[in-house]
Design brief:
Elements lengths: L1 H46 L2 E8 L5 E7 L4 E11 L2 H17 L8 H6 L45 E6 L10 H7 L9 E2 L4 E5 L4 E7 L11 H16 L20 E10 L2
Antiparallel strand pairs: 1-8, 2-7, 3-6, 3-8, 4-5, 4-7
This protein binds calcium ion (CA).
The site of calcium ion has 6 residues, from loops.
Length: 275
């Protein structure tokens, strides 16, 4: 009887040891596979780069993409599209195309009445109504001289119309706010911190936490501009605005962004980033 009891106890002990070993083995396997499973289930979606598109209007000031970046975060920017900074010149050019074709075609190509119809335009007259030296441009902008606005550009060292990007710490501005006032209210950011996006830019790194924001390089009249001319033009236009206050047919609109108001077109920017 005692022998039988010992055998039963021994079998139970063996079963207990086997159970413990089996349980330990299962726990070890679980602990080894756990990080892999966690990695697969939670980090893969975050590792997928996010692709989104932002339209940058040529007529607006700073435009917030709504993308919040952490300092040091890398973003790929791919711009495309065309803008024009002087819409009147588009009409001027269109007016001259037919007269120029007629003028440079062999005589007899066009009937007398057609020639008379288009002969009144005069290229020797260099008034604003006849000039068309500015063109549609891509994000690299256009290198042309302005008769009195060169010093008023946001980035005076870059082409007119160049696409510019910056990270704004606060989102308390609109696309209609004076761009120099926006920079001042963001903690005295400088125009030199506006980075150009000529073409696909793979080395854009957020230099602070904030909102990815775009604007084109255009002249601004502002009391906050480092350019004296920009401040003088701002005051002059404010006075002009007052003098026209009773004039229903003549409105200046936004004084800081008045040079944006005759722009047309937009850039589309593909933004690729990871959360
Ligand atoms: Ca303009």
């Amino acid at each position: 009887m005692e022998k039988t009891y010992k055998i039963i106890v021994s079998v139970l002990v063996i079963l207990l040891v086997c159970s413990i070993l089996l349980l330990a083995n299962m726990l070890m396997m679980t602990s080894q596979s756990s990080p892999k499973n966690t990695f697969n289930s939670s980090s893969t979606p975050n590792d997928q780069p996010i692709e989104t598109y932002m339209t940058v209007d040529a007529t607006a000031g700073f435009q917030n993409s709504g993308i919040f970046l952490k300092q040091g975060q890398r973003v790929v920017l791919e711009p495309e599209g065309r803008i024009h900074l002087a819409v009147a010149q588009i009409y001027n050019r269109a007016e001259y195309i037919k007269p120029l074709i007629i003028k440079h075609s062999p005589s007899g190509t066009f009937a007398e009445n057609i020639q008379r119809q288009y002969s009144q335009l005069d290229l020797d007259d260099k008034s604003d109504k006849n000039i068309f030296n500015r063109n549609w441009m891509g994000p690299e902008g256009e290198s042309v001289d302005s008769d009195f606005l060169n010093d008023c550009k946001l980035r005076t060292d870059l082409n007119w119309g160049t696409l510019l990007a910056i990270v704004m710490p606060k989102d308390n501005f609109s696309s209609q706010t004076d761009p120099f006032e926006v920079l001042k209210n963001q903690g005295e950011l400088q125009t030199g911190q506006l980075l150009h996006v000529f073409k696909k830019k793979e080395d854009f790194v957020a230099d602070r936490d904030g909102w990815l924001t775009f604007i084109i390089n255009e002249a601004v009249n502002s009391q906050y501009s480092p350019s004296e001319k920009s401040r003088v033009y701002y005051e002059a236009l404010k006075k002009a605005e007052q003098s026209l206050s009773g004039d229903y047919y003549h409105k200046i609109g936004s004084v800081p962004l008045v040079w944006f108001s005759d722009n047309v077109g937009a850039f589309r920017v593909k933004v690729t980033y990871s959360k």
